[in-house]
């Protein structure tokens, strides 16, 4: 038996999800004739208080389409240095949108209005105009840390004062809402655009839905086409998303519980130098300097537990839909056996 804790992207469709995909009514989405895609877009837009949605094949594409929609070449985006847009999207903001980037060091990936305000470039012809603030919730490299709505509303106010857009990468937003209990609609209305990932905690094979005003989504549809994201009978993937919204949202608390159980063991072991607070489904910890990260990962793999390093001595464990109680127990036993 192997337990894959590398990422919540490792899930495979459940039997019920596969049945929903097989039964999907589909059409050509480039022609805007796929009824299942339309239903998914409308469903998520309504849940988050937005006017419209746009299905994208990946989270990276959704992020980049949003940046292209909200900015002009030569402008600047502002984000935490851990964000996916900055760390894991190959500099696409520069290549595709002609943006420069200013990164800040927040609290485990979370920025505050007080940090953002002085970082905004003034009306100075020598500097790029700061035009968009990008947030990520939950923050992956912050150990699945969660923004709370009041802090984001304060950031929105700063953005409005300076004529800037506010964008939310919500790849794991449902995990954040499962913890905070805050309103999805309130979150949607707090930002100009946001994306909702389907292929992580919700367990879909692919897909991210970008949400915004009708005008923004109309423009985003054009940029999705330019970036090669226009697909045809994509309703099969959209059907997986609709199934997940009905069956996989409430169960996210189970992933969080299992992550806490892993964390309780990790923090007691001699090889753990520092464990980041565990709020959702990500367990992130630093190894003691006496332990080699590659050797540590191999030791876990030899016991049947797959995980990854996040750079230097940082190790990540992620719980998800495919980790049942038996798999959790195996992972706990292996972690306890490593001296």
Describe the model.
The chain folds into 2 domains: 3-8 and 251-337, Alpha-Beta Complex (Aspartate Aminotransferase, domain 1), CATH 3.90.1150; 13-247, Aspartate Aminotransferase, domain 2. It contains 14 helices and 13 strands. It has helices at residues 15-22, 35-47, 59-70, 84-87, 92-97, 113-119, 149-161, 173-180, 184-190, 214-226, 235-247, 252-266, 293-302, 325-337; strands at 3-4, 52-56, 76-80, 100-104, 130-136, 165-170, 193-197, 208-212, 272-275, 282-287, 305-306, 308-309, 314-318. The strands form 3 sheets. The protein has a 7-stranded mixed β-sheet with strand order 2-8-7-6-5-3-4, with helices on both faces. Strand 9 (272-275) and strand 10 form a beta hairpin. It is globular, with a radius of gyration of 20 Å. The model has no long low-confidence stretch (mean pLDDT 97).
């Amino acid at each position: 038996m192997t337990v894959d804790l590398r990422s919540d992207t490792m899930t495979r469709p459940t039997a019920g999800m596969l049945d929903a995909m097989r039964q999907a009514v589909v059409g050509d989405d480039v022609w805007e004739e796929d009824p299942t895609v339309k239903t998914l877009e409308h469903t998520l837009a309504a849940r988050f208080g937005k006017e419209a949605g746009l299905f994208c094949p990946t989270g990276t594409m959704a992020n980049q389409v949003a940046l292209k929609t909200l900015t002009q070449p030569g402008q600047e985006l502002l984000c935490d240095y851990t964000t996916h847009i900055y760390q894991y999207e190959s500099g696409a903001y520069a290549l595709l949108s002609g943006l420069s980037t200013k990164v800040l060091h927040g609290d485990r990936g979370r920025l505050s209005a007080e940090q953002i305000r002085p970082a905004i470039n003034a009306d100075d012809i020598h500097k790029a105009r700061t035009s968009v603030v990008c947030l990520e919730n939950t923050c992956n490299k912050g150990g699945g840390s969660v923004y709370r709505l009041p802090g984001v509303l304060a950031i929105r106010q700063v953005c409005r004062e300076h004529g800037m857009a506010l964008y939310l990468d919500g790849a794991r937003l449902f995990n954040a809402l499962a913890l905070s209990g805050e309103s999805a609609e309130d979150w949607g209305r707090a930002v100009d655009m946001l994306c909702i990932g389907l292929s992580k905690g919700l367990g879909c094979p692919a897909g991210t839905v970008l949400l915004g005003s009708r005008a923004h989504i109309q423009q985003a549809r054009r940029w999705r086409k330019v970036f090669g994201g226009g697909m045809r009978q994509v309703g099969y993937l959209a059907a997986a998303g609709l199934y997940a919204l009905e069956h996989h949202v409430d169960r996210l608390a189970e992933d969080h519980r299992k992550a806490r159980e892993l964390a309780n063991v990790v923090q007691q072991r001699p090889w753990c130098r520092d464990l980041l607070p565990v709020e959702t489904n990500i367990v992130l910890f630093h190894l003691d300097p006496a332990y080699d990260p590659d050797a540590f990962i191999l030791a876990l793999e030899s016991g049947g537990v797959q995980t990854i390093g996040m750079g230097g001595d940082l190790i990540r464990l992620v719980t998800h839909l495919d980790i049942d109680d038996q798999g959790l127990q195996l992972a706990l036993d292996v972690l306890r056996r490593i001296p």
